[in-house]
C-alpha cells in the first residue's frame, strides 16, 4: 500500500485494486484565514486527482474544498460516502459534478472490486464537525490503514477488532478559535492555551495507545495563517500556549512519551507500507524543512497575499440589511428550537464593526425571547465582535453554518459570562431547518438516555459514560481531588455536586465509594 502525502489531512492511497484520494484541501478556508502548511498548491493535482475513489471525511472547509474537488478531481471517481444524518455532503458533491456514490453502512466492512476493503465510521453528534465527522479504514493484501483525520470517536475498538493496523493517521494539532480570540489578559490566554495544547497531545497519545499501529502519521494540522492580522497565530513566536504545534513538534513530544514510530508526510512524501515495515521518501529532508519554517511561511505569505486580498474584496455587501436578514433567517429557527434555545439560556450579542473600522452596530439574538433585535444595554452571556462585512457575506450566500465559516476564521473577538456553552455554537452551526431539527432530536434523545453503568475511579463511583459525548471514563477519566476531567474533550466535573465545570448542563452522577449509593439516576439527573 502506497500513501502519498498531499497536505493537511489529505492523502492519496494507492493499491493494486484501486486508488483513494482523501480530503483534498488546497484553497484558503474560513474567510481566507486558514491555509495548508506545508504548502501543497504546487503539487501535480491533475495527476493526483485521477483516482478510482474519493473520500471526504466531513464538510469542514479544510477537508471539503469545493473548488479543488470541482476543478481537479476526476468525476469518474466513486465517492465513498459516510452514513451521515443529512444529505448535505452528497448534495454538495453532486452539485460539483460527482455522480457515482457508494453509501457505506456505518461501521460495516465493504468489499470493493479486486480485494480492496474499506469501512467508514460516521460520528453524528451535532458537535462532530458540521453535522458529522468520520474515519476511513482501508485493507488490501493484509495491510491495514486507519485514516482517523480529526475525528474523535470515544474509542477505536471497532477498528482494532478488524486486525492489527499498520498505519494510523490522526490529528494532533489544534483546529479551533479558543483561547486566542477571547478578550483575556495575555497571561490567561497563554495558560489556557497551554492546557489545551497539553490536552491535545494527551488525547493523541491515548488514541495511539488504543490502536498500537506499527506506524503513526501526524496529519490534519496545523493550518497556517498568512493574513497579517492573523500572523501571530502561527507557532513561530515561542509561545508555549500556542495550540497549533507542527509535525516536528509532534515528533519531539511523542519521543518524550516513548514514541519511536512516527512518520511525517510532507506534500509529495511517499510511504510504502507493508506488513513488515514502511519506507518513506520525501521531496526535501523533513528536519531541514521545519528548521526553515519561518522562511517558508514568509515566502507563502507574499505569494498568497493577492489571493487573500481578492477574497477580502468579495465580502462587502452594503445592500444587505443585516438586522432584517438576521431576523428573517434566525427568528423562525428560534421559534422551533427547544433544547438549543434552553441550553443557550440568554441573549447573545454581535457587535458589527463598520467599514470605517470604528462605528459599531450591536444586534442581539435573544434566545429566551425568540427574537433578533437591536441591543438594549442588557447583560448578555456571549458577545462576539467582528467586521460587519463578514456577516453581510454570510447572509448574502445563505451560509447555514457560521461555525464552519466565521468562528473558525478567528476573525472575531469574544467575551462571555460564566462557563463555555456548547449550545451557542451548536445553534449557529444549524441555521437551516434540516440541521436544527436533527440537532433538536439528538439532544432530546441524549437527554432522555440514562447511563446506568457505574465505574470506580480513585475512590469515586461515577457513571461510566461522560455526560458530554459518552466517552468511556474508565479510559478517559482522570480524578484529581474532587474533580474529574474527561481527557477526550477536556470537560471537567465537580464530583461532590455532579456539576459540570466546563459548560452549562451535562450533570454527572457520582458519589464517594465509601458512601451510600445516591438516589436513582433519573432523580439524580433531574
The helical percent reads 25-40%
- Give the termini distance in whole angstroms: 52 Å
| Strands, count | 27
How much of the sequence lies in strands comes to 15-25%
- Figure out the total of helices: 16
Strand order of the largest sheet: 7-6-5-3-2-1-15-16
Mean pLDDT: 93
Largest sheet: 8 strands, mixed
Shape: globular
Radius of gyration from CA coordinates: 23 Å
Helix and strand composition category: alpha+beta
Helices and strands in order:
Layout (H helix, E strand, L loop, with lengths): L1 E4 L5 E5 L2 E5 L12 E2 L8 H4 L4 E3 L10 H7 L5 E4 L6 H8 L4 E4 L6 E2 L5 E7 L9 E8 L2 E7 L7 H4 L6 E5 L14 H26 L3 E5 L3 E2 L22 H10 L13 E4 L4 E4 L4 H6 L1 H21 L8 H15 L2 H6 L2 E7 L6 E7 L4 E4 L7 E6 H10 L5 H7 L2 E5 L5 H7 L4 H16 L5 E4 L2 E4 L9 H4 E4 L2 E4 L4 E4 L15 E3 L8 H4 L2
Parallel strand pairs: 3-5, 5-6, 6-7, 11-12, 12-13, 17-20
Antiparallel strand pairs: 1-2, 1-15, 2-3, 4-14, 8-9, 9-10, 10-11, 15-16, 17-18, 18-19, 20-21, 22-23, 23-27, 24-25, 25-26
Amino acid at each position: 500500500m502506497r500513501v502519498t502525502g498531499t497536505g493537511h489531512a489529505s492523502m492519496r492511497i494507492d493499491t493494486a485494486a484501486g486508488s483513494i484520494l482523501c480530503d483534498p484541501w488546497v484553497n484558503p478556508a474560513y474567510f481566507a484565514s486558514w491555509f495548508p502548511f506545508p504548502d501543497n498548491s504546487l503539487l501535480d493535482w491533475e495527476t493526483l486527482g485521477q483516482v478510482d475513489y474519493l473520500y471526504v471525511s466531513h464538510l469542514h472547509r479544510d477537508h471539503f474544498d469545493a473548488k479543488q474537488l470541482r476543478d481537479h478531481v476526476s468525476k469518474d471517481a466513486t465517492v465513498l460516502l459516510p452514513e451521515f444524518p443529512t444529505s448535505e455532503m452528497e448534495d454538495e458533491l453532486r452539485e460539483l459534478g460527482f455522480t457515482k456514490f457508494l453509501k457505506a453502512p456505518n461501521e460495516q466492512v465493504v468489499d470493493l472490486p479486486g480485494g480492496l476493503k474499506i469501512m467508514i465510521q460516521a460520528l453524528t453528534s451535532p458537535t462532530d464537525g458540521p453535522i458529522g465527522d468520520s474515519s476511513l479504514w482501508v485493507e488490501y493484501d493484509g495491510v491495514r490503514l486507519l485514516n482517523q483525520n480529526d475525528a474523535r470517536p470515544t474509542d477505536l475498538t471497532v477498528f482494532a477488532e478488524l486486525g492489527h493496523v499498520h498505519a494510523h493517521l490522526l490529528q494532533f494539532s489544534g483546529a479551533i478559535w479558543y483561547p486566542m480570540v477571547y478578550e483575556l489578559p495575555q497571561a490567561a490566554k497563554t495558560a489556557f492555551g497551554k492546557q489545551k495544547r497539553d490536552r491535545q497531545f494527551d488525547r493523541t497519545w491515548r488514541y495511539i495507545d488504543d490502536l498500537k499501529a506499527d506506524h503513526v502519521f501526524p496529519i490534519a494540522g496545523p493550518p497556517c495563517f498568512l493574513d497579517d492580522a492573523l500572523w501571530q497565530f502561527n507557532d513561530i513566536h515561542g509561545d508555549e500556549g500556542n495550540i497549533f504545534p507542527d509535525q516536528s513538534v509532534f515528533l519531539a513530544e511523542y519521543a518524550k512519551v516513548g514514541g519511536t514510530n512516527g512518520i511525517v508526510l510532507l506534500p509529495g512524501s511517499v510511504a510504502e507500507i507493508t506488513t513488515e515495515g514502511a519506507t518513506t521518501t520525501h521531496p526535501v529532508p523533513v528536519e531541514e524543512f521545519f528548521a526553515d519554517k519561518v522562511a517558508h511561511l514568509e515566502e507563502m505569505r507574499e505569494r498568497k497575499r493577492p489571493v487573500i486580498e481578492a477574497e477580502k474584496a468579495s465580502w462587502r455587501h452594503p445592500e444587505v440589511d443585516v438586522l432584517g436578514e438576521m431576523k428573517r433567517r434566525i427568528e423562525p429557527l428560534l421559534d422551533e428550537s427547544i433544547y438549543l434555545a434552553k441550553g443557550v439560556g440568554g441573549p447573545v450579542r454581535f457587535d458589527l464593526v463598520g467599514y470605517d473600522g470604528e462605528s459599531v452596530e450591536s444586534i442581539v439574538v435573544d434566545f429566551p425571547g425568540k427574537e433578533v433585535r437591536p441591543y438594549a444595554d442588557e447583560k448578555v452571556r456571549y458577545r462576539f465582535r467582528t467586521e460587519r462585512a463578514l456577516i453581510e457575506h454570510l447572509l448574502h450566500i445563505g451560509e447555514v453554518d457560521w461555525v464552519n465559516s466565521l468562528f473558525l476564521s478567528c476573525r472575531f473577538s469574544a467575551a462571555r459570562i460564566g462557563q463555555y456553552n456548547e449550545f451557542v455554537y451548536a445553534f449557529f452551526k444549524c441555521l437551516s431547518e434540516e440541521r436544527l431539527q436533527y440537532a433538536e432530536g439528538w439532544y432530546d434523545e441524549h437527554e432522555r438516555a440514562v447511563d446506568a453503568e457505574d465505574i470506580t475511579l480513585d475512590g469515586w463511583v461515577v457513571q461510566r459514560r461522560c455526560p458530554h459525548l459518552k466517552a468511556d471514563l474508565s479510559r478517559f477519566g482522570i480524578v484529581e481531588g474532587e474533580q474529574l476531567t474527561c481527557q477526550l474533550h477536556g470537560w471537567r466535573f465537580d464530583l461532590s455536586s455532579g456539576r459540570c465545570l466546563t459548560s452549562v448542563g451535562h450533570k454527572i452522577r457520582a458519589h464517594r465509594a465509601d458512601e451510600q449509593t445516591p438516589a436513582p439516576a433519573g432523580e439524580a439527573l433531574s
